[in-house]
Design brief:
Helix content is 36%, strand content 22%. The protein contains three helices and four strands. Helix 2 packs parallel to helix 3 (97-105). The longest helix has 28 residues, at 23-50. The protein is globular, with a radius of gyration of 17 Å.
Length: 129
């Protein structure tokens, strides 16, 4: 972006659960938004250190992939960059349904970056009451 005098927009879409009317879900969405703002602030700080303007945007949507595609296809962007993790058994990139949706529906090029050493926890144990 710096070489072409461009800018970056870092977007995080918080998934809105289907039962989003409950108080528990409101609290979970609020916490997710707070975490997303912190994460995108780090991206903006990195951009500033590199001399690149990074605008940030956090939104909530029932279908995050559709929200991202709508934004990508708005005509305001030239490239969609997203991270993907490798699975420990195959050590190959794993594209789930959301990434596949983006690949199939975005009208701009997509660059998928392998995220280093992501942890994939097993099924979580039930909480003790």
């Amino acid at each position: 972006a710096k070489a072409s005098d461009g800018s970056v927009t870092a977007i995080h879409v918080v998934p809105q659960p289907e039962d989003h009317g409950t108080l528990t879900e409101h609290a979970r969405i609020k916490e997710s938004r707070t975490d997303a703002v912190a994460m995108l602030s780090e991206a903006a700080e990195l951009g500033a250190r590199l001399g690149v303007l990074v605008a940030t945007e956090v939104t909530v949507a029932a279908h995050p992939e559709a929200e991202i595609v709508e934004k990508a296809n708005s005509g305001d962007f030239d490239l969609l960059v997203m991270g993907s993790a490798t699975r420990p058994l195959s050590n190959r990139a794993f594209f789930g349904h959301r990434v596949t949706y983006l690949i199939e529906n975005a009208e701009i090029p997509i660059l998928i970056v392998n995220l280093p050493d992501q942890e994939f926890p097993g099924p979580s144990a039930p909480a003790d009451d």
